[in-house]
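> tool_call: predict_assembly(chains=two)
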Amino acid sequence: MIVTRQLRRFGLVAVGLALFAAVAACGDDGEPTPTPQPTSPAATATQGAATPEPTPTVGGTLVVYAGRGQNLVEPLVQQFEKDTGIDVELKFGSDAQMLATLQEEGDRSPADVFWANTAGALGRASSLGLLAPLDDELLSLPAAFVPDSRSWLPVTMRLRVLAYHPDRLKPEQLPKSILDLPRFARENGLQGRIGWTPTYSSFQDMLAGIIAVHGEEAARQWLEEMKALQPKAYPSNPAMLEAMRAGEIDLASTNHYYVVRFQRAGYSIAMTQFEQGDPGNLALVTGAGILKTAKNVPAARAFLQYLLSEKAQQYFVGNIGEYPLIEEVVPDPRLLPLEQAVRQGPSIQLEQLPLERALQLLREAGLN
Amino acid sequence: MRSMALAHIRPRAAVAALPLAIPVALAAGGLLVPLAYLALRAFEADLATVEELVLRRRNAELLRNTLLLAAALVVTTTAIALPLAMLTVRTDLPARRLFDVLLTLPLAIPGYVGAFVILAATGPGGLYPLPRPSGFWGALIVLTLITYPYQYLSLRAALLGVDPALEESARSLGRGRLAAFLSVTLPQLRPALLGGGLLVALHAIADFGTVSLLRYETYSFAIYLQYSAAFDRTYAAWLALLLVALTALLLAGDWLLLRRLRLARTGTGAPRRRRPTRLGRWEPVAVAAAALPPLVAVVLPLVALLDLASRFPAGHAAGLREAFGNSVTAAGAAAAMSVAVALPIAFTAARARLPGAQAVERLAYVGYAVPPLAFALAWVFFTLRAAPALYGSLPLLVFALSLHVLSEAMGPVRAAVRQASPRLEESARTLGAGPVKTFVRVTLPIVWRGAAAGGALAFIGAVKELPITLILAPLDFSTLATRMFSYTQDAMFAEAAPFALAIVGLSACFVGVLLWTERTFSS
């Protein structure tokens, strides 16, 4: 058993080293420092160019962290590579996973662009000081939803809708406001027949929208009334709509494109909206920002510009049924005209959505 | 006598310790990094909020749900796995090789996919006229079907290693068949039962994909929510540390039960192969019983997946070949590495009466209990500060994956190592064989089966792993699991189907290879 004495010594040394390294690393500031760009865009873009006033040529490699689905991102990125000659390297995950990764990476992050599924994640990235401010030319591209922080670019829009089972409910009887949903459900015996996704980002954005429009007290009361109806909680929207198909629930607030997708697959699920300006119709904006760690800013800028090009916007409309944010796109007959769609939701600054308070309410209610 | 022999080989022992010490140290260091990271994040918290989050009543409820599910799952999986392992190892069941593969195959179905597909295929209007599973019973049924193979493989490897002479002696001394089994064989299976049961319990504790779909709220689900929905690393770290503490309690219990368990043969001669029990007229019943679990856990979900795929309009499913290659590379390397690390750990833990050596073995299980997202973030944090050149490289992904699945390899390896007698090695050494020769000629043939079973489990665990792969993989590195997940998230089932089928097919091949090597060894 001499072997083991040796072993113990080696083990202790290794464990000690690992702990030392971990502790030493703790001394390091893990959070990103809001320092300006380490390298000037022109310098990185034109490597070795000796002219005194180099024109920034766009090229090289671009690293994009995408919170959006791989299947959606890849075809568009391949087209971008073909059109511009820029080589794009991708990392995928949920918004939250990408955000957490960016936070852990801090100013050592290799990423140039964060392309997110939700305005909430972009607002969070902005308030954490991860995003660099954008110029006026870029921000003049989208028709609406430019954030006050001017640190990210709105790309497309989705709408919250009320999905229902058309065999059991008629559209004209449905409530006109999300606040009336609990009373409607009580009066129509829908206890236990409502689905919701309290842990899903869009639902949380909507709750923040209710706080913004009607105040925190009304939102808390709404949550309590909803809870009293024993709603069924689902981790994702496809899971919830499958449950509606299976007759487990009759009514659910969700995002419009999920319903469109299930309708295309022949499911008997219908959708409607509340009256104009209701937080239950909240516009959910997707977007992208350039990170402060970006090493290839010209390429990152070109990428953001590309996302708002006619070609890209047409792709978002045609392939996934999202609303475009530029006028020049042929609309989808299933969708509302852009101007009307933008007016459907409450007119609030997306970055000012009180997401933290919404999460606090959910926590108090024991829902997350 | 013994001390004299040891004194004689002392200089060699120091050299011999190195190949054992390096992997053990690597694993110990690697598993402590996530714990150090969690502690670091936890101490950033403001105490009032921690109190509110950690001490709230909901946590007690979540804890109760978690423990209930884990305990019930150990019972149900053992109840399924023990008879099945007996059938395939000890009887003349026809097509035993095929059943070995089929019975292990449910492991290849990732829980989140299995649960989703089953939910999509049940209830009114679904493919199968069955009620939709949900809540505790739903979670228990689905998790039982997905995790029983852990217990099956563990028991199977142990049953193959049991010396039939012991049970025969008991029978010749007048015990009945059942009594001999209960008093002689079952105690021999205890390390395997504990190893498999531990893995199953840990699976129940760590799972969040399946339970969230079945709407049964456990502790891991709450942690997942803190990371994904609340964007909160600090409080998630507190909850994760509590989960680690819970796992540590489980491990302590396991350790108490395993203490002083020595099961190796001490007599002369080598164990004989056992003559299989004849099933006779029970054969059709046995075949049906063995066919049922794979039918429910594999065939029904796959048919449902294909049905779902056919209903959704097919788009363009890109990158299947590339994802296949990446999955094989990453999961294969991770599995090999985890076995290479598990063997020396199991040896030191089984042979040395040292708290330190035992602790590393336990640590492997703690590594599994650290929520995978936190595990990945720890490595982002640590690598960028300690070895930035490794960040975003394939070796880092392989290393992290191998530590994550180390506990899956550990169970069978541990059981096999405990059945290898130190006496045999000591004899080889006193006869002049060096430590390497002793290991290759004496020890390896004994532990080979356990190592292969452990490698298979590690591979299958790594091939369907998601959060660690998403975060630590090199840029542009997609695997079968990441692509499949991306498609199912967007309800693109037609596109997801080929990736799901590839995962199942790949895992099936791997199980097949494992069983083939086993045959060449035992015949």
